[in-house]
Structure formats: C-alpha cells, structure tokens
Amino acid sequence: MNLPSTMRRCLSAFGVWTLLAGQAIAQVPFVPAEFYNTIRPDFGNRLPLCVLPDSATLEQDRQAARSIARMLLLEPDIVEIDADMGMLDELGIWPVIFEELAESCVGVLGVQIIPGEVAPDWMTLSQPYFEAPYVLLTRDPAVETLADLPAGTRLGVPLYTPIDTEVMTMIAAGGEFSELRRLPYDRPELMTELMRNGEFDAAIVWSPHLDLAQVQPLDFFASQASVAPLRQDTRAVAVLMRTQDQMLRTMIDQAIDAAGAQTP
C-alpha cells in the first residue's frame, strides 16, 4: 500500500503509542483529518463490521457483529480484513485498518480496551462486548494463585499489556513477589514454545488464546490457576470506530446493551 510520507509518519507514531500502552507517553500521536475524514460508500441496510485476521476472539467478534446488526434492524455484513500478519512492515496493521474504515466497514471488532488509556483524536471505542479472564498456567498442580509461586519462578507475561505493567510494579515493590523472574513474550505461540522447552516455569495468558490452533495441544502445563492478587485480571474487547462517527458509536453502544440484556 502506498501512503503519503506524512501519513506514514503519523501511523508510525501511533504504532509506537500502542506498543507502549499502559506506560507514560508524553504526546498522543496526531493523524491529520484529511487522511480519515472521507465519505464512505452508501451501505444501504447493511452494517459492515470488520474482523481482524488471526483474532483470538474471532467467534465472539462474529457473534457480536450479527447481534449488533440485528438490534439495529440492519443486515450484518462481516468483513474479514485481508492482511498477511507475517508480512506487515513497521507500521503494522494500522494502514490496513485506516483503509478498511474509509472504504469497507464502519468499525473494527476485537480491539483491546486498556483502562485509563487516552485514545488518539481520530478514533473512538465502543463499550466492551466481550470480556475474559487472564489465567496462570503452571507446571505445579498445587499452585492455586500467583502468590503460591516460589521465589525464582520464571514467569512468562504478555508484553505491553496492563497486566505486564502490574507484574513489573509488583516485583519492583519488593516483598513476597520480588524474587519472581518476569520473562515477557509477545505471541501466544512463543509462550507455548517456551513452556514446552522448559524456559518458563509458569505463564500468564489471556484465556481465549488457549483456543488458538497455534497453541494446541494443551500439553505444556499441569493446571490453570488464578492470577490473584493482580487487579488487571481480565481483558475486554470493543469496536473501534472513527471519532466523527459519534452517532454510530451511540447506536452500537445501545445495541451492545440490548444484546447483553437478552443474554441469559
């Protein structure tokens, strides 16, 4: 995809911002309005919503897209973003998302909500439509919580997440957790490999990642335990939209509320 140099610089800054989510950032990246304030095609009675490739919540994303459309009396149109995740450049998937939001869909599902994070001015997020817990995978079935891990435990933690930040803070504070060895990983399949190779003694993982094909079979841990006493014990996902679509955001939020009220 050929993007203007200014756009590439802005997207690159945004990529760094998301990479460092949960840490103190001095400046929120700015994306000039002319790059995203475009008029979309008329979708008629369809509600096109994009889903991310290789999403750990793909089934929940599809279900949410159908439910939101039904609540708004529209026809669901689930658009699969066509991107080879292994071939992306330093800008990541953001140029693809920009293009899809301008041409193919009104929102992108499966985007993580990070509490306390300030979003760039070009984007807005709906309320969450799906939430799942983090779990502690361990080789010792006697471990029931994070507090049961012995000193020196090599603990895998998902990189650039709020729970990773909390683990670092907890270790730095000293006390019973000061001897844990935090070992970050950036992909569930890497966590799986390191657990199988014996380089991790335990690992914190978002539970939907255990359903991914690339981590099967689940033979690399003895039991699942609680991440207590960590407070960032769940992760939620939402619909990402353009900021100028505030009316749409309100409608989608109401649809998510209504769908939740009908769920037993």
Detail the topology: elements first, then pairings.
Elements: H1 5-19, E1 46-51, H2 58-71, E2 75-80, H3 94-103, E3 107-113, E4 123-125, E5 130-138, E6 154-158, H4 162-172, E7 181-185, H5 188-196, E8 202-206, E9 223-225, E10 234-242, H6 246-262
Parallel strand pairs: 1-2, 1-3, 6-7, 6-8
Antiparallel strand pairs: 3-10, 4-10, 5-8, 5-9, 5-10
Helix pairs in contact: 2-6
Would you write up a description of this structure?
With 264 residues, the protein is of the alpha/beta class. It has two domains: 45-131 and 236-262, Periplasmic binding protein-like II (D-Maltodextrin-Binding Protein, domain 2), CATH 3.40.190.10; 132-234, D-Maltodextrin-Binding Protein, domain 2. Helix content is 29%, strand content 22%. The chain contains six helices and ten strands; from the N terminus they run H-E-H-E-H-E-E-E-E-H-E-H-E-E-E-H. It has helices at 5-19, 58-71, 94-103, 162-172, 188-196, 246-262; strands spanning 46-51, 75-80, 107-113, 123-125, 130-138, 154-158, 181-185, 202-206, 223-225, 234-242. Strands 1, 2, 3, 4, 5, 6, 7, 8, 9 and 10 form a ten-stranded mixed beta sheet that branches. Helix 2 (58-71) links the parallel strand 1 and strand 2. Helix 2 (58-71) packs across helix 6. The radius of gyration is 20 Å and the shape is elongated.
